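Design a sequence for this backbone.
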């Protein structure tokens, strides 16, 4: 059995705030952009961003729970100064969460992918540790927007967004392989780079294939990319998916009761949709007023949802 991971958002909008589009090729290496309190998503906060720029370091990951996967409560802070979460339950029963991390007390880990573990179904979590990816080509920027899956042989595959260093380079989805979910080896070539580029993939194993969903970088159109693969490496693009205006394919897909369920981001917060084939989707509910959601159903039937919360009370400029 393959233990499939779920991906969460690179660029989401604040619930209730309309926006138009997201730049496809920022001039500086893009930091992960979680929901921002502005009419449009702010430019990626790379090293040349003004010191007063708001950014994902001003938000925390919030953990919710639900008995039916549709109505969530019991909100509590999970990881401070983090975004773009993804979580799986591995073959040993351990929960594995990956995310973009922005710790103020660890400069080397700022705006890098990190991992944390839970051995008690999400009640307590280990301290985050920065993920290491060796063998990255020199022409690619560092990994961001992670999603994780476990393969049938027990290894973990990390899917992430990257792009070339030069101006005009398109972002796409790449991958790396690991035996411990913390130290990875880059896998050659891109996994998925459609025309115009894409960011923030969700990957899930369903009906004998790996399904990939990702953001088309046009906010709130309801449309997103869909691709499938037999080996999790070579993906073939299918017709785009559509969830309706005001929604974005920024979130995650998970198998629930034999069907696909997607938790996404939109103007009104988290939206929840269901599909039997990965192509046609039906909205089945709404979730918390939050961004970048990812969900995991536990053996008990309870569903955990991790999402990006509101700005911190001490929100401020990017640290030097």
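Sequence:
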């Amino acid at each position: 059995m393959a233990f499939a991971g779920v991906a969460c958002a690179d660029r989401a909008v604040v619930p209730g705030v309309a926006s138009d589009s997201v730049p496809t090729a920022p001039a500086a290496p893009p930091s992960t952009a979680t929901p921002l309190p502005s009419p449009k998503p702010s430019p990626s906060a790379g090293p040349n961003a003004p010191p007063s720029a708001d950014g994902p370091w001003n938000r925390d990951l919030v953990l919710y729970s639900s008995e039916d996967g549709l109505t969530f409560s019991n909100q509590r802070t999970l990881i401070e100064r983090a975004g773009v979460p993804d979580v799986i339950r591995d073959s040993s029963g351990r929960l594995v969460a990956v995310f973009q991390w922005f710790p103020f007390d660890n400069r080397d880990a700022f705006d890098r992918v990190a991992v944390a573990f839970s051995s008690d179904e999400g009640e307590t979590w280990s301290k985050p540790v920065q993920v290491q990816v060796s063998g990255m080509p020199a022409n690619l920027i560092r990994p961001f927007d992670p999603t994780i899956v476990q393969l049938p042989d027990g290894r973990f595959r990390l899917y992430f967004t990257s792009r070339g260093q030069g101006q005009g380079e398109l972002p796409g989805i790449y991958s790396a392989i690991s035996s411990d979910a913390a130290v990875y080896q880059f896998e050659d070539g891109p996994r998925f780079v459609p025309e115009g580029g894409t960011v923030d993939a969700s990957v899930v194993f369903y009906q004998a294939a790996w399904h990939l969903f990702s953001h088309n970088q046009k906010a709130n159109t309801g449309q997103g990319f869909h691709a499938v693969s037999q080996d999790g490496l070579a993906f073939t693009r299918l017709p785009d998916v559509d969830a309706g205006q005001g929604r974005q394919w920024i979130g995650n897909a998970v198998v629930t009761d034999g069907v696909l369920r997607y938790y996404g981001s939109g103007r009104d917060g988290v939206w929840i949709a269901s599909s039997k084939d990965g192509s046609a989707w039906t909205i089945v509910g709404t979730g918390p007023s939050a961004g970048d959601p990812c969900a995991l159903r536990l053996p008990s039937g309870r569903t955990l949802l991790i999402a990006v919360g509101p700005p911190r009370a001490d929100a401020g400029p990017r640290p030097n």
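The radius of gyration is 17 Å.
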